[in-house]
Amino acid sequence: MESIISTLFKKETKTTAAVASRSKNATLIEESDTLQLVYDVFTYSAGSNKRNSDTCLINFMFLHGSGMNRSVWEYYIAYMSKHFDNNTKWQINKMITLDQVTHGDSAEINRNLLGTNFDWADGARDACKVAQEEFLPKRMSNCVNVIVGHSMGGFQALSCGILSPTLFDLIIVIEPVVYVPHVENKLNVTIVPPRFYEALWNKMEDKFKDMNDFKKFMKKRSFYKNANAEIIERMIQFEAVHTAEGIIRTKISQQQNIICYLTLDPTAKWLIDSLPYINTPVYGIVGGKSTWCPPQNQELLVAKIPKYQKDIIPDGDHLLNLEDPGECLTKIFHCVNKFVDNFKMNMRKRTPNKDNDRYRLKLFEEQFALFKNERVKDGPIKLAKL
Fold first, then answer.
1. Where's the AB hydrolase-1 domain (predicted)?
2. Model pTM?
3. Which superfamily is assigned to 2-186+264-346 in CATH?
4. Average pLDDT for residues 18-30, to the nearest whole number?
5. What is the DSSP letter of 45?
6. Are strands 90-99 and 56-63 parallel, antiparallel or unpaired?
7. What SS3 class is residue 168?
8. How do residues 244-257 score in pLDDT, each as one tens digit?
């Protein structure tokens, strides 16, 4: 996997400021602490790009789930290329994998700054910020931005469709967490029973006597024990920190890991109420055997998102992006293929004089005429409903 990536792509690791205006308790000392984001950018190495001049260019952003890190997507980076042997419809421009502020290398930088709240929508705002820095402006009319998110990352990918409606042209979500039952309370925050808390906590060990102990935990007792062999080996390598005391710890702390699971609400209510306003096409990959997300989760997305298409992997569980990455990758590829077909049909022809003042004035007059015809009409007058 890593050798394929190093052969095909140039990998650049970057650090940028996270969104400054965050939810209460996102940082330990709110008046002074600011958070950072670490992410990787993959672009073709010189000589490995076989792009034709008329090929559609795709920018990908990948968002991980709770407790994971950006390395889980490296399998996708490496093996995306195997689909290109006979593909002339589109080609990769950039691919970005991002560590959320409480995860991976971002967690290392922010280690003594993090508070007791990780609002998932803040993570979506961070993703939009990075995408704006890396993907905009679209210098070519045949360039498309695609965001892919799993679980919490799926929630955040959908949130990006609300927070920045035109930034991403296609949203792909894998087992997105949106609606999860919790203990009823007036504040509508996530409250879980003690037994469930303990069950989660025991899956989130963050200190180990040595690498063998860490590997044994990851492969036998962790959430990821059924993950693809290449993915789990890379996760182990990426997540392990060798301390001065001679023990191994993970980059994400046990406390920040559990905080992530307990902060879905109340932001989920905001997203649920906003789902009808996602105008971007959304493609949902669902595990047929998944029990983490209740059936109401998918029913909600199907009912509320205007351009939502669901695709089921019958034998897939909630972590199907880790456990069956080949099938997920194939579905992502075919989804992008279908989108590109429609995109090319509707793509405006590049106009050589589009920066000419006369062209711009004519374009505005045409658009204003359409706008006026749409917004100025006779009819019954009534007050807007509050």
1. 62-327
2. 0.92
3. Alpha/Beta hydrolase fold, catalytic domain (3.40.50.1820)
4. 94
5. P
6. parallel
7. coil
8. 999 999 999 999 99
